[in-house]
Write a structure and sequence with these properties.
Rossmann fold; 7-stranded mixed β-sheet; Methionyl-tRNA Fmet Formyltransferase, Chain A, domain 2; alpha/beta; single chain
Length: about 325
C-alpha cells in the first residue's frame, strides 16, 4: 500500500474566521510550514497591540509567521520563496494576492470563501448575504486566480441563514464548515483526484467591504429590511438611530409586518415592548445600547429614558 502524500503547506489568514481552517490543517496529515498574517494592530479600548487570532494559533504551534505590511516587500518575497510550499491555503487573509505570489506554490493557492460562489464575490460575503435577507449561504473552496474570487471551484457546502441569525452567528458556523471541507479538498489535491469546476461569471454578484455609514437606520425602509440591517451589521459597525438626539445602537429586533404608522415614530412603549413604525410594518426593538452604556433590554431602556408613543427616532 502506497503511503498517502503529505503536502508542505503555507497558510494565509488573519481573523477569527480563519482559525478553524488553520486548526483543521494542523490536525491533518499535512504539514503547515509557515503562516502569513496581517500585521498586529491596536485593539480594544486600551489600544493594546495584540497578535492576530491566526498568529496566536501559529505561535502556540511553533510555526513561523510572516506579517508583511506590503506583499511586494523584497524581504517577504525572499522568505516566502524559501519556504517553497507545495500548496498555499488562504482564509480571510485580508489582502489581494499578487500574481508572483500565486505562482510560488507548485500546486497553486486555494481559498476558503464564505459564500456559494459565484454569488457574493468580494470582501464581505457573509454580511452582504444577511443584509440582503438571503435564506442560505455556504462555503466554497476555490483555486485562486488573478481575478477576484473567480477561480474554479473544488467543493461547496451549503448552510441555512435563519431569520434571526446575525452575521456573527453565520460566520462562526461557516468557519467550522470551511475548515472541515478544506481538509477534504487538500487530501484530494494530494492524491491527484481533485476536480475543478469553472464558475459561471454571468451569475456573479459582489460583496463590497462594509462601511461605518451603513449603520444609519432609514426608518422609511420596511421592517424586514431594517431587521436584516440590524443582524447583518453585528458585530460591526452595528445599526444605530437617534433617540431624543442621542445615538442608540440597535442590537436585536423582531419585525411585525402588520404594524403601521409614521416611519420612525414609536408606536408602543410599555413593559417589554418598544415598537417603532417603519415604511412597511413595524419593528420591535428587543435589545439596544445607548452611547457609552452597556447593551440592555427594551424594558431596561424604557425605565431610564423618556420614550413614549409619538416620539420620533431619526
Amino acid at each position: 500500500m502506497v503511503d498517502p502524500v503529505v503536502l508542505r503547506m503555507a497558510f494565509f489568514g488573519t481573523p477569527d474566521f480563519a482559525v478553524p481552517t488553520l486548526r483543521a490543517l494542523l490536525n491533518s496529515r499535512h504539514r503547515v510550514i509557515g503562516v502569513v498574517s496581517q500585521p498586529d494592530r491596536p485593539r480594544g479600548r486600551g489600544g493594546v497591540v495584540t497578535p492576530t487570532p491566526v498568529k496566536a494559533i501559529a505561535a502556540a504551534a511553533g510555526i513561523p509567521v510572516l506579517q508583511p505590511d506590503r506583499l511586494k516587500d523584497p524581504a517577504f518575497r525572499d522568505a516566502f520563496a524559501r519556504w517553497a510550499p507545495d500548496l498555499a491555503v488562504v482564509a480571510a487573509y485580508g489582502k489581494i494576492l499578487p500574481e508572483w505570489l500565486i505562482a510560488v506554490p507548485r500546486l497553486g493557492m486555494i481559498n476558503v470563501h464564505a459564500s456559494l460562489l459565484p454569488r457574493y464575490r468580494g470582501a464581505a460575503p457573509i454580511q452582504r448575504a444577511v443584509l440582503a435577507g438571503e435564506t442560505d449561504t455556504g462555503v466554497t473552496i476555490m483555486r485562486i486566480v488573478k481575478a477576484l474570487d473567480a477561480g474554479p471551484i473544488f467543493a461547496r457546502v451549503t448552510r441555512p441563514i435563519l431569520p434571526d441569525a446575525t452575521s456573527a452567528d453565520v460566520e462562526r458556523d461557516l468557519a467550522d464548515a470551511g475548515g472541515a471541507l478544506l481538509v477534504t479538498v487538500v487530501d484530494d489535491i494530494a492524491a491527484g483526484r481533485a476536480h475543478e469546476t469553472p464558475q459561471d461569471d454571468a451569475l456573479a454578484t459582489y460583496a463590497p467591504k462594509i462601511t461605518k455609514e451603513e449603520g444609519a437606520i432609514d426608518w422609511s425602509r420596511s421592517a424586514w429590511e431594517i431587521h436584516n440591517q440590524v443582524r447583518g451589521l453585528i458585530p460591526w459597525p452595528i445599526a444605530w438611530t437617534h433617540v431624543h438626539g442621542a445615538r442608540v445602537q440597535i442590537i436585536r429586533t423582531a419585525p411585525d409586518e402588520h404594524g403601521s404608522g409614521t416611519p420612525g415614530e414609536v408606536a408602543e412603549a410599555a413593559g417589554d415592548v418598544l415598537r417603532v413604525a417603519t415604511g412597511r410594518g413595524a419593528l420591535r426593538l428587543l435589545m439596544v445600547k445607548p452611547e457609552g452604556r452597556r447593551a440592555m433590554s427594551a424594558r431596561e431602556f424604557l425605565a431610564g429614558h423618556a420614550v413614549a408613543p409619538g416620539v420620533r427616532l431619526t
